[in-house]
Amino acid sequence: NPSPGYYFIEINEQTDLQLFDNYGKYVFEKESKSGKRKKLLENGLLAEFAFTKYYLYNQDFELIDSIVNPTNYMIDMHDIVALRNGHYLMLLNNNVTMDLSSIVEGGKEDATIIDNILVETDGKGNIFWSWSAKDHLQISDVTSAVDLTMNLIDPFHINSIFEDSDGNLLISIRHYDEISLINKQPKALTW
């Protein structure tokens, strides 16, 4: 006996929002704005990635708002979180030139790394808090799967974010094979 409710399924980032019942029967479809990655947020809204912003849909799949990127960085579609204080935490990418020649043999003096940045915003362009992976993680701690001698390097690759009951942030860092806890005040890694 399946539990009551419906499943939201995204198939290959297709353009439609779709719901299925517990038996796999298709029950609802509505065309979405961008057709890209979607996530059900903690506040009950559905966020849809649209390159420069996220579109927000209510429980009836009606477009009700959007979250603008308050920076010049690129939105990373891996995750977005609705925080308990009503703000949103966006995952962003910024290409940064870094001298890796003294860190690893064969490292480039002008390597470009993709820095992951977390930004707390109200969705209207205001920034309340930010955190940069390159400022808190040692690039030399990456797994052996990351070649630090390349010209373009994705050393961190944060995949998911979770706000704990204390307001701290649990992040999954793929290229470190680790989960870390960020204490938002004073922007420090707890572990």
Topology diagram in text:
Layout: E1 7-8, E2 16-20, E3 26-31, E4 38-40, E5 46-49, E6 53-57, E7 63-68, E8 74-82, E9 88-98, E10 111-121, E11 127-132, E12 152-153, E13 158-163, E14 169-173, E15 178-183, E16 188-189
Parallel strand pairs: 10-12
Antiparallel strand pairs: 1-2, 2-3, 4-5, 5-6, 6-7, 8-9, 9-10, 10-11, 13-14, 14-15, 15-16
Would you kindly provide a written description of the structure presented here, covering whatever features stand out?
It is elongated and about 60 Å long. It starts with 6 loop residues before the first strand and ends with a strand. The chain is mainly beta and 191 residues long. It has no helices and 16 strands. Strands 8, 9, 10, 11 and 12 form a five-stranded mixed sheet that branches. Strands 4-5-6-7 form a four-stranded antiparallel sheet, with no helix packed on it. A four-stranded antiparallel sheet has the order 13-14-15-16, with no helix packed on it. The chain has strands at 7-8, 16-20, 26-31, 38-40, 46-49, 53-57, 63-68, 74-82, 88-98, 111-121, 127-132, 152-153, 158-163, 169-173, 178-183, 188-189. 0% of the residues lie in helices and 47% in strands. The mean pLDDT is 91.
